[in-house]
Amino acid sequence: MDALERNRWENVVDAAVAVTSDLDLDSLLTRIVHQARDLTGARYAALGVLGRDSDDELVEFLTEGVHAGMAASIGTLPRGRGVLGVVLRDGRPLRLDDVGSHPDSVGFPPHHPPMGAFLGVPVRVNGVVFGDLYLTEKPGGFSEDDERIVAGLAAVAGTAIRNARLFDELASTRAELARMAVLEDRNRIARDLHDLVIGRLFAVGLSVDRISRHVDEPWAGRAAQAVDDVDRAIADLRGAIFALGSDATTDGPRLVRLLKATAAPLGFAPNIEVDGDLGLLGIGLRSDVHAVMNEALANVVRHARATRVDVCLRVGPDEVVATVTDDGVGIGDRGPASGLANLAERARREGGSFTIEPGPGGVGTRLVWSVPLDQDLPAEPHP
């Protein structure tokens, strides 16, 4: 091995060592493209990277020898068609004296520099092709030695790309495990609140309710108010439980289950409909929606003496609307229950509205709570 050959392979070794350094992937690949062009004497060099979920389309393209003005005039970068596609598809090196003479050549776009001699090598590790490294325009064409050197650099590039993707997958897995651990902890707290605290409050409410039946005014009225306060505390706790276990992928079914638990004293099942993606709502707004629907339903249980209740939640692109309709005695002259003031406050805080009106045909009551969605906030991703 002469001095020139030894120097070329030393550069390949340097590139391999760089894979273990702190260089980011783009910097390392740029360095490899530069070395390939420098070591072969080619005028142009490029490295294309396939997408994670694609085996035939390049999503990233690094060039050497093409200045910014030329790249801008060419426009859209190659996507892995023509001769580049042959290298990607066959998974083996390709040397040509004239790239335009190959039967798969699709020519060049306007303003593209002329290219004759061509050397393309797949960027591959363990049989998996990650892209291709290719060079063009070398006086006298490319040799077998050029091919071996570029194949070594392509192997280094493949290792770097694979390692970077494995690292991203590992980071995603760790993040998902951390998210699951947090959710499990929240669910444990939620179970404790539901099984211990709500159960005890419910028992207290029943005891006070029994006492209220055997005492005179004003104590009977105060006892009844205390029962209402306990009911609202239970509703608030259920809202906290809902927020603790909040997950955009499961909140719809969980909301239905919790509302059915609140409606149990009715003696019949309400009609509950949830329409739309709760992932469009932040955790805080999802908690508000649960608290509003739960309080409205609890108010029906306490005061309406209804035989039918319809509960509907609709999440649209611009707003979320919660509606509770019953066929009970209606509001009449007594005015809304004090517990409903909290619903109006929640709507006002979010820039929304809250209305109480007679139900269909003037029978019962219809509560409508609506809040606009902030279009500047991204929807919560589903795992």
TrEMBL record:
Annotated signal sequence range = none
Would you tell me the Gene Ontology cellular component terms? membrane
| Record carries keyword Transferase | yes
| Ranges of residues in domain GAF | 24-171
> Which GO MF term does the entry hold, naming one?
protein dimerization activity
Q: Which residue range or ranges hold the Histidine kinase/HSP90-like ATPase domain? A: 284-375
SUPFAM superfamilies recorded for this chain? ATPase domain of HSP90 chaperone/DNA topoisomerase II/histidine kinase, GAF domain-like
Q: Which CDD domains match?
A: HATPase_UhpB-NarQ-NarX-like
Entry keyword set: Kinase, Transferase, Two-component regulatory system
Q: Which InterPro entries match?
A: GAF, GAF-like_dom_sf, HATPase_C_sf, HATPase_dom, Sensor_HK_TwoCompSys, Sig_transdc_His_kin_sub3_dim/P
Q: One Pfam family, short name please?
A: HisKA_3
Transferase as a keyword? yes
Stored PANTHER family: NITRATE/NITRITE SENSOR PROTEIN NARX-RELATED (PTHR24421), OXYGEN SENSOR HISTIDINE KINASE RESPONSE REGULATOR DOST (PTHR24421:SF56)
What is the name of the protein in this document? Histidine kinase
**Annotated organism of origin:** Aeromicrobium flavum
